[in-house]
Amino acid sequence: MFEVLLKEILGRYTRSIEEIEKKASRGEVVGDLIRRQVRSCLNEMQAVGAQPDDIRAAFDDLEHPSSAVFTSMEPRVSRLLTAMKLHVDFLLFIEEQQNLNSSSIKKNGEGFGFH
User: Fold this and answer.
1) How far apart are CA 93 and CA 102, in angstroms?
2) What confidence tens digit (pLDDT) does each residue in 90-99 have?
3) Residues 62 and 82: beta-carbon distance below 8 Å
4) Cα 71–75–80 angle (5° rounding)?
5) Nearest Cα to Cα of residue 89 among 66, 62, 60
6) Cα-only R_g, the chain
7) What is the pLDDT of residues 41-66, one digit of tens each?
8) What is the residue-wise DSSP string for 46-97?
9) Under a CB-based contact definition with an 8 Å cutoff, are residues 65 and 14 in contact?
């Protein structure tokens, strides 16, 4: 049931991201809308209790044709998928590093940090 919920969330955001990419390919300015959608997707997944490994697995499943989230697997869609996964990996890495740093600060008894 949990995996189905994550796939539903991911599917909704992926369709939105695909539409943004189509606008960009027509020359419309989209700025960082794709990255914002990826971040929103991660936030929603975390809100339902997904852990980083769950999120990575859900994004890894996008590569399988059976997932059928993307309407096609053209080269542009493959590039978009790669960009999404890289951004997810980056955001999860940053979050995991912040969690490690905050736990080491608490262990050392220091309360100072950059964030």
Assistant:
1) 14
2) 999 998 888 8
3) no
4) 70
5) 60
6) 16
7) 999 999 999 999 999 999 888 776 55
8) HHTT--HHHHHHHHHHTTSGGG--SS---HHHHHHHHHHHHHHHHHHHHHHH
9) no
